[in-house]
């Protein structure tokens, strides 16, 4: 027996059936772009879910589709169509009867004509008074009987989708089956409302009466949802009619049932469903603008669809506080917009959960927040952008290629590049060669290639205490500088955390007051329209930071677009004034002098072309010995990171 052979290759027959419906990393990168542009995580995630990702529709498209479908539902027809249809059938029956009576010359025929002429205009009363009338026309009698049969079928079919076929004839056994089903159904719902386990009872019920439920519900709750949806729509239908129409239709329905036991069971069912699903819309009136007359069952289904679409419009809008994708009724969405819409919303819901499961976001009392894992990826993205712009060769000046006793292994390795003087990591190099040879299906002996070599990374023991002071004031938002500032701070934070772990970085944000910010807080911080530039308080916190690390080289970087307009009073309260005052300038210069005496150099990054700020910056630079940079917004990160690296090289040489 010959062995069977199989060939494996990439899937090329349409979309990969085993592919994930979403790419978490791509979604995270999309979130990161919005966050790095100055937005908050909440806004970025909301935009991602609204716009969709990776070819799938977002909430905006689904919301628009639900609105269009709702407008179509409102134009479906006229809710009073049942009364119109009964009136039309009654007119046909009376016309046939009068035609028969006109051919009869007897006095009895004249008396019957007078009786028909005195029928009330109210359709329900006319139908009721004709219930004892002895029809002379066979066509008229049959048409009148059809009114009762139609109403009976429509009333029950409006509640149970399988009723129309079961009641299409006049089989007494079919009517008894309906009564038995209603009795069993009410007993099942009563047991469920008492909190009893109805699993076995539901299975038995569906085995006996499943023909009435073509939707094939899977459990008692799904059955209740199915029935309550239609019952609530029937209630809304009655409330949407005029008082006269409502009264006429109620009388017609009562006459059509003609069975006190059946009417009692239906009333009990309505009460049970109302108690089990009180949150449904049982009260509001619907506005239908269509011209096509709708039968009672058709009108109830139209209003049930309209209720679905109104709820979906609100759920997909996600405007109410605390809204989540779990609010969306996926079954109703699939019922109204098709299976593709359900697939799209499930993919969005799973994406949100997967971001949380993989540790990129966490959920707290105030909603979703970025985690340090996500911050590392965002920082890496921001830093990569910075180094793409830097004009230095290779990996950039942030690498220190010098070796010697002061270097310590970091435990990490990287690919060897021309000019590297770090020691070769033999284990990783051989490992790479083995993997490459296996992929290329080469047999021993093992050969080494240039791309196999890796070097062991080392770092010098010299360290820096870095304080990055970033302006969070009103003008930074107004002039579009918020995003570049955030990208710069995250890039520097990631550089220090990954390449210079011995350095101590503190990010200090300042507007009317200053405060320390973690990378997570920085990424999530939202613009606040606060006026005030309290550089004095920021420098005070920066001074405390560098003094906590006396053996480290102090590096202080300031990013701002305005001269100081606020400072702290002796009692700790912030004082703000624009234009600035001598007191604010004096308090700020006092902190500059304190840092200068400590030996810390301030490098200032001035955004904008404010003349007052330029004069202040020049004065601080002359007083402290630091430098002033005026970068374009898209090069701010390049300037800040490059200056940090330049400062580190400087104090390493002096070490």
Overall description:
- With 655 residues, the chain is of the alpha/beta class.
- Helices cover 56% and strands 10% of the residues.
- It is built from 25 helices and 12 strands.
- It has helices at residues 24-36, 41-51, 59-74, 81-102, 107-117, 123-129, 138-159, 163-166, 172-193, 199-209, 220-240, 243-257, 260-276, 296-317, 330-337, 339-357, 372-389, 426-439, 474-478, 482-499, 519-524, 535-547, 582-598, 611-624, 636-653, and strands at residues 361-364, 367-370, 407-415, 454-460, 464-471, 504-510, 514-517, 553-560, 566-568, 574-576, 601-606, 627-629.
- It has a 6-stranded mixed beta sheet with strand order 7-6-5-8-11-12, sandwiched between helices.
- α24 (611-624) links the parallel β11 (601-606) and β12 (627-629).
- The longest helix is centred in the first third of the chain and has 22 residues, at 81-102.
Task: Kindly summarize this structure in a few lines.
This protein has 655 residues and is an alpha/beta fold.
The 3D shape can be described as elongated
What percent of residues are in strands?
5-15%
**Count of runs of 4 or more consecutive helical residues:** 25
Measured distance between first and last alpha carbons: 77 Å
Summarize the main sheet. 6 strands, mixed
Mean pLDDT: 77
- How would you write the strand order of the largest sheet? 7-6-5-8-11-12
- Give helix % range: 55-70%
């Amino acid at each position: 027996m010959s062995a069977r052979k199989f060939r494996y290759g990439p899937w090329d027959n349409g979309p990969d059936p085993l592919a994930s419906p979403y790419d978490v990393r791509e979604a995270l990168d999309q979130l990161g772009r919005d966050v790095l542009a100055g937005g908050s995580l909440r806004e970025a995630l909301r935009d991602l879910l609204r716009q969709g990702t990776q070819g799938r529709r977002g909430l905006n498209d689904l919301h628009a589709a639900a609105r269009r479908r709702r407008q179509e539902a409102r134009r479906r027809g006229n809710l009073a169509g049942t009364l119109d249809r009964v009136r039309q059938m009654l007119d046909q029956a009376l016309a046939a009867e009068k035609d028969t009576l006109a051919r009869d010359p007897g006095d009895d025929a004249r008396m019957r004509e007078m009786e028909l002429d005195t029928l009330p205009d109210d359709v329900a009363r006319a139908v009721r008074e004709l219930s004892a009338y002895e029809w002379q026309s066979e066509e008229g009698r049959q048409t009148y009987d059809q009114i009762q049969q139609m109403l009976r079928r429509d009333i029950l079919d409006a509640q149970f989708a399988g009723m129309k076929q079961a009641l299409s004839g006049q089989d007494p056994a079919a009517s008894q089956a309906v009564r038995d089903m209603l009795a069993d159904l009410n007993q099942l719902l009563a047991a469920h409302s008492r909190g009893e386990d109805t699993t076995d009872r539901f299975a038995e019920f569906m085995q006996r009466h499943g023909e009435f439920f073509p939707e094939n519900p899977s459990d008692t709750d799904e059955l209740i949802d199915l029935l309550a949806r239609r019952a609530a729509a029937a209630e809304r239908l009655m409330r949407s009619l005029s008082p006269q129409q409502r009264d006429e239709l109620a009388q017609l329905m009562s006459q059509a049932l003609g069975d006190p036991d059946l009417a009692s069971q239906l009333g009990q069912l309505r009460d049970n469903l109302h108690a089990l699903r009180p949150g449904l819309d049982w009260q509001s009136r619907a506005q239908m603008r269509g011209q096509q007359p709708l039968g009672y069952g058709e009108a109830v289904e139209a209003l049930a669809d309209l209720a679905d679409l109104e709820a979906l419009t609100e759920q997909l809008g996600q405007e109410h506080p605390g809204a989540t994708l779990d609010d969306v009724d996926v079954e109703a969405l699939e019922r109204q917009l098709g299976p593709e819409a359900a697939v799209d919303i499930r993919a969005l819901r799973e994406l949100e959960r997967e971001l949380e499961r993989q540790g990129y976001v966490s959920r707290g009392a105030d909603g979703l927040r970025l985690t340090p894992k996500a911050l590392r990826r965002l920082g890496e993205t921001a830093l990569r952008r910075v180094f793409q712009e830097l004009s230095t060769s290779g990996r950039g000046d942030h690498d220190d290629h010098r070796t010697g006793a002061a270097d310590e292994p970091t435990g990490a390795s990287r690919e060897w590049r021309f000019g590297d003087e770090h020691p070769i990591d033999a284990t990783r190099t051989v490992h790479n060669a083995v993997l490459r040879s296996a992929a290329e299906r080469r047999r021993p002996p093992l050969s080494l290639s240039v791309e196999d070599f890796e070097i062991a990374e080392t770092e010098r023991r010299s360290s820096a205490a870095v304080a990055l002071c970033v302006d969070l004031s009103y003008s930074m938002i107004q002039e579009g500088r918020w995003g570049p500032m955030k990208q710069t701070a995250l890039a520097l934070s990631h550089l220090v955390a990954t390449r210079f772990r011995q350095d101590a970085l503190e990010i200090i944000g300042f507007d009317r007051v200053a405060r320390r910010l973690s990378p997570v807080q920085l990424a999530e911080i939202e613009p606040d329209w606060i006026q005030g530039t309290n550089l004095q308080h920021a420098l005070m916190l920066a001074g405390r930071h560098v003094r906590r690390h006396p053996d480290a080289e102090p590096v202080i970087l300031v990013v701002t677009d305005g001269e100081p307009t606020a400072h702290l009073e002796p009692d700790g309260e912030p004082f703000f004034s624009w234009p600035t005052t001598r007191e604010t300038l004096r308090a700020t210069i006092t902190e500059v002098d304190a840092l200068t005496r400590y030996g810390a150099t301030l490098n200032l990054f001035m955004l904008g072309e404010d003349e007052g700020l330029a004069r202040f910056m020049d004065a601080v630079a002359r007083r402290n010995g630091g430098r002033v940079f005026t970068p374009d917004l898209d090069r701010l990160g390049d300037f800040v990171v490059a200056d940090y690296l330049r400062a580190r090289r400087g104090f390493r040489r002096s070490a």
